[in-house]
């Protein structure tokens, strides 16, 4: 039951936002009493912590699956972007990350420390892979480009209220990041990915 509550709460938080969803909403959606939820979670903050932790785990599992498919480095980044777009496709209003930072800053900071570590590794692996494939320039300072990219992405998510707007800007950031690193072969691959994408 605890897992079911976390799963339903995560779905509602991502769709409607962390602030707007109440314990009553979750109980109503699940056709259980609020008392049942409080049996497992002493307050909403604890439920948010558990939910964000589960979503974080799911995201990284899906990212690992995408990486395992062995796309080239540029294609891989576009597949990961599409995964995020699909995850948040029901949310057209407030960005969940923006809401979490605004209303639950402590939980947000806790997640951020894990995210930066994992995203840094993911970005680094992608750049190194792209260099080996001849898609990114071999003279890149990898650590600097990793920092550039996650600073861009986190800034967009923290400061853009609308989820659909955040996704548009993220695509621009991905193109900007890729062009900055790409060889001629990389630019050709980037153009190919941009043509097939639908926003």
SSE layout and pairings?
Layout: H1 2-16, H2 23-30, H3 34-40, H4 44-68, H5 73-87, H6 96-103, H7 105-132, H8 142-159, H9 163-181, H10 184-196
Helix pairs in contact: 1-4, 4-5, 4-7, 5-7, 5-9, 6-7, 7-8, 8-9, 9-10
Write a compact overview of the structure shown.
The protein is mainly alpha-helical. Helices cover 78% and strands 0% of the residues.
How many E-type strands? 0
Structure class: mainly alpha
Beta content comes to: under 5%
Q: Termini separation (Å)?
A: 37 Å
Shape: elongated
Average of pLDDT: 90
Biggest sheet architecture: none
Identify low-pLDDT runs: none
Order of helices and strands: HHHHHHHHHH
Keywords: DNA-binding
Protein name: TetR/AcrR family transcriptional regulator
Pfam family, one: TetR_N
DNA-binding region: 22-41
């Amino acid at each position: 039951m605890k897992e079911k509550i976390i799963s339903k709460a995560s779905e509602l938080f991502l769709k409607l936002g962390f602030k707007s969803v109440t314990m009553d909403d979750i109980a109503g959606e699940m056709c259980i009493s609020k008392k049942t939820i409080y049996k497992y979670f002493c307050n909403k903050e604890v439920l948010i912590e558990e939910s964000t932790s589960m979503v974080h785990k799911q995201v990284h599992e899906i990212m690992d699956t995408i990486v395992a498919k062995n796309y080239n480095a540029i294609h891989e980044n576009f597949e990961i972007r599409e995964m995020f777009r699909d995850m948040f496709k029901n949310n057209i209003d407030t960005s969940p990350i923006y809401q979490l930072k605004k209303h639950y800053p402590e939980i947000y900071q806790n997640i951020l420390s894990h995210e930066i570590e994992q995203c840094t590794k993911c970005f680094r692996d992608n750049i190194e892979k792209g260099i080996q494939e001849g898609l990114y320039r071999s003279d890149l300072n990898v650590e600097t480009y990793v920092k550039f990219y996650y600073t861009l992405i986190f800034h967009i998510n923290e400061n853009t209220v609308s989820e659909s707007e955040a996704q548009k800007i993220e695509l621009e950031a991905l193109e900007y990041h890729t062009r900055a690193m790409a060889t001629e072969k990389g630019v050709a691959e980037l153009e190919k990915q941009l043509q097939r994408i639908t926003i």
